[in-house]
Amino acid sequence: MTPFIAEVVGTALLITFGNGVVANVVLSKTKGNGGGLIAITFGWAMAVFIGVYAASGSSGAHLNPAVTIGLAIIGKFEWALVPSYIVAQLLGSFIGSLMVWMVYRSHFDNTADVEAKLSSFATSPSIRNTIQNFTTELLATAIFMLAILFIAKPANTLGAVDALPVALVVLAIGLSLGGPTGYAINPARDLGPRIMHAILPIKNKGKSDWGYAWVPVLGPICGAILGAVIYNLLV
Predict the structure, then answer these.
(1) Among 80, 138, 167, 178, fewest CB within 10 Å belongs to which?
(2) Residue-wise over 185-200: b if at least 16 C-beta within 10 A, else e?
(3) pLDDT score at 228
(4) Average pLDDT, stretch 83-97?
(5) CA 194 to chain centre
(6) Is-contact 16 101, C-beta < 8 A?
(7) How many domains is the chain partitioned into structurally?
(8) Tens digits of residue pLDDT in 132-156
(9) Which pLDDT score, from 0 to 100, does residue 158 have?
(10) CATH number of the CATH domain containing 25
(11) Residue 108's CB: how many other CB atoms inside 10 A?
(12) Alpha-carbon span 31 to 14, nearest angstrom
């Protein structure tokens, strides 16, 4: 695969499995309804593992505009490639969201809770406090960025499970820091699916909450830059 296609495919897999587990837990009449946060965090960790495993050999498996920008800020990625990677990641997130909707379409139609429908696409805060929500996304992504830079520093030594450490970091962040905002830590994970929520023909879907949408975009970008800069200072 070319790096562009790899980022599309990897991000599409990430969103399909990540938002898929959310839909399975929160939508009505699914087999996984009521599975709770533990099921969601494990599902998202496996989504990261699958996406990174699929794309790492061809693109480095950024799958995240914040990671792409953070790496470019500290000179570990070419700025000229940043726009194409971000476009690929957004395109992949559109495809992944479409896949989730196609699989769970009947359950979307049978769910009365508009917040559950939106959460199957995008994040939202448990307590709406813009400064606190932004800070949560910034710090969670800074930790994520710092961790993956330390993970990526050694030569790959785990063979087929080289993607596992990143997945475990995402699992830890979800379990420990995911409560306040749903841990977007990835602008493509939130913005692309939110756009799809707005345009897909979902019965009684409610609003897409665009007033909050900037938080899971700008917070992770600033957090990734912060994490990358701290890494550069430490190493």
Answers:
(1) 80
(2) bbbbbbbbbbbbbbeb
(3) 96
(4) 98
(5) 12
(6) no
(7) 1
(8) 999 999 999 999 999 989 887 655 5
(9) 47
(10) 1.20.1080.10
(11) 22
(12) 21
Q: Can you tell me which residue has the tokens 């593992």?
A: 49
Contacts of 132 (CB under 8 A, 6+ apart): 180
Residue type, 221: I
Q: Domain range spanning residue 27?
A: 3-234
Helix (H) or strand (E) holding 198: helix 187-199
Instruction: Give percent of the chain above pLDDT 90.
Output: 91
Rounded CA separation 203/208 (Å) = 13
The pair of three-digit structure tokens given for residue 193, joined into one six-digit string: 């699916």
Compute the average pLDDT of residues 175-183.
96
Alpha-carbon distance of 33 to 104, in angstroms, equals: 12
Please tell me the pTM assigned to this model: 0.95
The count of residues in the chain is 235
Residue at 136: amino acid letter: T
